[in-house]
Amino acid sequence: MAATFASKCSRVGRSLWGGLGNNLSGLLSASHETACNHFLSQQQRTFIQMRTVLKVVDNSGAKKVMCIQALKGKKGARLGDTIIASVKEAYPNGKVKKGKVVYGVVVRAAMQRGRCDGSEVKFDDNAVVLVDKQGQPIGTRVFGPVPHELRQKKHVKILSLAGHIA
Amino acid sequence: MRLDKCWFCSSTLYPGHGTQFVRNDAKIFRFCRSKCHKNFKMKRNPRKVKWTKAYRRLHGKDMTQDFAFEFERKHNRPERYDRNVTENTLKAIRTIDKVRVTREIKHIERRMTGKKAKELREAQKELEQNISLVKAPAVLREDPSLTLPIKLKVSQKQAEAHLMEE
């Protein structure tokens, strides 16, 4: 029953129900067998849209950020795009406080992005680096791997701060 | 252009094929097709999955140590383009591949045979000792026409001829 509900969720409205459905299945999967888990592990990864919570991977002071608008793209933002977001969780002493509206560049996306040689890349989570209106990063460090798609989008500063380039 | 190996099945990844997954610790996993990718998501160990090269090498089904493998080392330093070097390398790749393939086939053949001699010896022994299971020795003595249906060596045939004469 949970499986059919989850499948309905995945088919109909991923944007609003996606988070809710996943939460429910997360709660139920503890009691169900691995068959249920296996079905749920084949997720359809989609765009980053309104209400998507992303992890912040720089030292600007924010921890979690919720997307309120994806600039460019009718269906949502992908790897390398900029978004407008609202800070939901922040460290107490940081440049950015909770509730602030910021711009961000998506540096890791769970949805696969095609590369120009025909292959595809995907990351483990959705992560963002906060930038200002001009595109310069607010923080001074970037954690984790970043893709080199950012070079084409002219986010060279982020690439230079990054530890690994995927 | 770089030819990689699939992380799961160790087949070569040509440009335009496959996906790559970047984990948050910056380790990149490349997969040749979704079969390997799905197995990885199921957290299967390639050393235990029968059709992968890792399993075959581990269990001695395929050649592991060979001089031909020395040529296929991965270098991370870029080579300066030299037309002669490139030409010679391409020729060498062709011949080394041929050598390697013939050696691998021989290895598998050698693995498959080697039991025939042992099986023959065992069959002969069984025939000598356990013919009484097929027909009672008294009956055999009267009617030695119960010929042994299996092809034997010449020495065995002579012994059989002696038996029949008696």
UniProtKB/TrEMBL annotation, chain A:
Keywords assigned by UniProt, alphabetized: Ribonucleoprotein, Ribosomal protein, RNA-binding, rRNA-binding
Keyword rRNA-binding carried by entry: yes
InterPro entries: Ribosomal_uL14, Ribosomal_uL14_bac-type, Ribosomal_uL14_CS, Ribosomal_uL14_sf
Top-level division of the source organism's lineage: Eukaryota
Any single Pfam family the record assigns to this protein: Ribosomal_L14
NCBIfam families: rplN_bact (TIGR01067)
Family assignment from sequence similarity: Belongs to the universal ribosomal protein uL14 family.
UniProt protein name: Large ribosomal subunit protein uL14mz isoform X2
Organism listed in the record: Ziziphus jujuba
Lineage start: Eukaryota, Viridiplantae, Streptophyta, Embryophyta, Tracheophyta
TrEMBL record, chain B:
Name used for this protein in its record: Probable ribosome biogenesis protein RLP24 isoform X2
Taxonomic source organism: Ziziphus jujuba
Residue ranges of domain TRASH in the record: 6-44
Gene3D superfamilies the UniProt entry points to: Ribosomal protein L24e (2.30.170.20)
Gene behind the chain: LOC125419439
Source species taxonomy: Eukaryota, Viridiplantae, Streptophyta, Embryophyta, Tracheophyta
Annotated Pfam families: Ribosomal_L24e (PF01246)
Major location (coarse): nucleus
Family the entry assigns: Belongs to the eukaryotic ribosomal protein eL24 family.
Subcellular location: Nucleus
Alphabetized UniProt keyword annotations: Nucleus, Ribosome biogenesis
